[in-house]
Amino acid sequence: MLEVSGICSRLNSTSIPKGPWTKLYTDFLDSPEKSILRPFAKYCAANDIIPSTVSYEVFEAWYQWKEENLLRVTSNHKKSMLRAIKCWNVLVTQAGTFELCQVDTRRKRPPAGLINHLLPASFLIDLVNFKNLRGAQITRPSEPISRYHEAFQRSNGAPLSATKVEHCVSSVKLAAKTAIALGIKQADDLRTLSDVLTVEIASKTVEQAENRNGPSEYLLSIAKDLRCVAKRWTSLSQLQETQWKELIAGISNHLAVSIGHHRNFMTEKNRTKLLKVLEDKALERLISFPRKTLNTNEEYRLKQGTVTYNMALDVCCAVAVAILLTLPLRRGNLCRLKWKTNVSTAADDETGFLSIPGNEVKNKRPLTAILPKHVCHLLWLYREHYWPVLHPKDSYCPFLFPTRDGRHRAAQPLADMIARRIKEATDLEINVHLFRHIVATLAIQEASKSGEISHARSIVEGLLGSSPGSNVSHRYAELTTTIAADWFQRNVTAKFLE
Questions:
Q1: What angle do CA 295, 333, 328 make, to 5 degrees?
Q2: Exposure b/e, 372-399, CB count within 10 A at least 16 = b
Q3: Summary count for the chain: helices (H), strands (E)
Q4: Are 159 and 217 a contacting pair, CB within 8 Å?
Q5: What are the residues whose beta carbons fall under 8 Å from the beta carbon of 45, sequence distance 6 or more?
Q6: Which residues have a Cβ under 8 Å from the Cβ of 329 and sit 6 or more positions away?
Q7: Which residues, listed in sequence order, are joined to residue 339 by a DSSP beta bridge?
Q8: What helix, strand, coil percent values describe the chain, rounded to 5?
Q9: I need a labelling partner for 421 at 20 to 30 A (CA). Which of 32, 39, 126, 216 fits?
Q10: Taking a C-beta distance cutoff of 8 angstroms, is the pair 375, 323 a contact?
Q11: ∠289-292-298 over CA atoms, to 5°?
Q12: Are the C-beta atoms of 350 and 450 separated by less than 8 Å?
């Protein structure tokens, strides 16, 4: 690309539309709030980009050029780029005579089914088989050497949970799209899943995801999903298994350095959010959120005699939070809850039961809980008055959190809606996953007050549905230590200071 320095003279050259760029560049100089766009105008002029063709991709190319050619670049690439796009949109609004187009700050994604049109039928059939069999089919390089080895193979090849299958299918499609986009594979070369289940393609897929969204645990999830499909759907050699392990270990180490992520500890971001929520007033606002939300909407319903769609969504979120405070489910299980199958209440609506079978849970452990009276009352009002507004009346819908077409809400949109409405009502920034941290921490605190610190680990494992002895409880080791020290101060040291 051409050097940007000394570009001002090119604004009047015949190769650049003279009127638009000169006028726009003058506007940049006269508007301090749009000063960020001055170098952008120079970049566009230097690369023969006319104003009417500016798009999201042009801004991306500009920031990529800055990272490659400038010594000092902002640490938050995406946020700075979005700020520049917003300034551009302001300019477009003010200079409407130049036939300029606003740029969508959200990255335009191709339709979900677009990748299906690029892939051969044999690949799609293999993907559908994996989804329908839930990854239970395993190809082994050799016959089992004993009945015990055969039993191990059957156990290791048990069907995946519905949530895990969805994640795996999504990751495989993402890997296929990446392989085609980068020219690693031609679309016609992808005949079976094994054609994209390589460490090279997995590594490139993770790398592209990080370039788009920055470092996060999502990168690790992509790699683990692809390895899961590879282990279940192909025959991996010892070398290939080692390469997959090295890739995942490398991603973990990279995340530990870049964002402080560690599998046995909470991230700094979650730790900060957690400490804010654990303050007495904040915790009171969170726990009272379902009750206050219900009361507000019930007052309107009883007065006006009607329920709007937005009211129904309000109470829908109140129900979700009430369930999460009873048993902190994972997002994938929460969004798929069904009446009677998973949530049932007695005829008096004062007793209820929450049950999720092991085959629907990530680690195969069944989850059960008795629902408190106030939660049962909330569920009854929700189903009687608000739930019917959320889905078509002429169709059967078993889901607690339905969409307008009668399906269950997707995990991420449901989680985003819950977080947004909690923020609006309580001014607390909480994601659905943080409820697991909140409930576990409160359980440890109560255990310390009663002197049952030794039982804290088993309580946390029970509440989170974690396997006994798993690494999950280690995430709360730092909190356990802090709480144990507080317990010692209250019960031992304080006696000598009185």
A1: 60
A2: eeebbbbbebbbebbbebbbeeeeebeb
A3: 22, 3
A4: no
A5: 7, 10, 11, 16, 21, 25
A6: 323, 337, 356, 367, 465
A7: 343
A8: 65, 5, 30
A9: 216
A10: yes
A11: 135
A12: no
Whether residue 267 contacts residue 261, with contact meaning beta carbons closer than 8 Å, is answered with: yes
| Tokens 């289940």 found at | 197
- Closest Cα to residue 163, out of 391, 337, 390, 369? 337
Q: Strands (DSSP E) along 337-444, which ranges? A: 343-345, 352-356, 367-371
Is 11:45 a contact under the CB 8 Å cutoff?
A: yes
235-271 pLDDT tens trace: 888 999 999 999 999 998 888 888 777 665 666 777 7
Spatial contact of 233 and 137, defined as CB atoms under 8 Å apart:
yes
CB neighbourhood size of 248 (10 A): 18
**What are the Cα distances from residue 391, in Å, to 109, 322, 394, 402?**
27, 21, 9, 6
Residue 293, SS3? helix
| Confidence at residue 455, expressed as pLDDT on a 0 to 100 scale | 62
Positions of the chain with pLDDT under 50: 1-19, 29, 97, 108-113, 138-142, 153
Instruction: Provide long-range contacts, Cβ within 8 A and 24+ apart, for 417-424.
Output: 417/313, 417/317, 418/317, 418/320, 418/321, 421/293, 421/313, 421/314, 421/317, 422/286, 422/289, 422/317, 422/321
| Model confidence pLDDT, tens digit, residues 140-178 | 444 555 655 555 545 556 778 777 888 899 899 999 999
8 Å CB contact between 320 and 396: no
Rounded to an integer, what distance in angstroms lies between the CA atom of residue 71 and that of residue 73?
7
Q: Is 123 exposed, middle or buried (0-12, 13-18, 19+ CB in 10 A)?
A: buried
Amino acid at residue number 130:
F
Could you give the 3-state DSSP secondary structure of residue 99? coil
The SS3 assignment for 424 reads: helix
DSSP-assigned letters across all residues of 141-187: SS--SSHHHHHHHHHHTPPPPHHHHHHHHHHHHHHHHHHHHTTSS-G
What is the Cα–Cα distance from 339 to 354, expressed in whole angstroms? 10
Cα–Cα distance measured from residue 108 to residue 142, given in angstroms and rounded to the nearest whole number: 46
Neighbours of 8 (CB within 10 A): 11
Asked whether 317 and 422 are in contact (CB, 8 A), the reply is: yes
Burial class (CB in 10 A: 0-12, 13-18, 19+), 474: middle
Question: At 12, which amino acid appears?
Answer: N
